[in-house]
Design goal:
Layout (H helix, E strand, L loop, with lengths): L1 H24 L10 H11 L2 H18 L3 H21 L5 H17 L11
Helix pairs in contact: 1-3, 1-5, 3-4, 4-5
């Protein structure tokens, strides 16, 4: 189980670091969007809110890659993952498989590090 945890941590960290840095360096081409998803992403980009989100992605991903403060990295990435999943469920279904993989990896890590989050669910 330790190997699976390490693989999931590194894979999730790489995904968020690569796609987070891509917002600043543009080394991966983005497919054109249309409809509501284009309006949503346009608003995030024009308001520069997208850069704040990408900073959280990079920070959380780096924490996972470094293997330090993994619960903090998962905490930073949690809201981002929920928004990615909802974006692909409600606005643009084309990226749903990757969003589901990212969600599954995060849930797996959340279960593996559940002792760090135990205080959040105590009555």
């Amino acid at each position: 189980m330790k190997i699976a945890t390490t693989v999931a941590r590194i894979l999730l960290g790489l995904i968020f670091v690569v796609f987070g840095v891509n917002a600043f360096l543009h080394f991966l081409p983005m497919p054109p969007m249309q409809g509501l998803s284009a309006q949503f992403m346009g608003a995030l980009f024009q308001s520069h809110y997208l850069y704040a989100i990408k900073c959280f992605e990079i920070t959380g991903g780096l924490l996972l890659l470094l293997g330090r403060y993994i619960p903090l990295g998962l905490t930073l990435l949690g809201p981002v993952i929920v928004n990615i999943l909802f974006f692909h469920i409600f606005l643009d279904n084309s990226g749903l498989p990757l969003a589901l993989i990212v969600s599954a990896l995060a849930l797996f890590l959340l279960v593996r590090y559940r002792s760090a989050f135990a205080g959040l669910v105590k009555p």
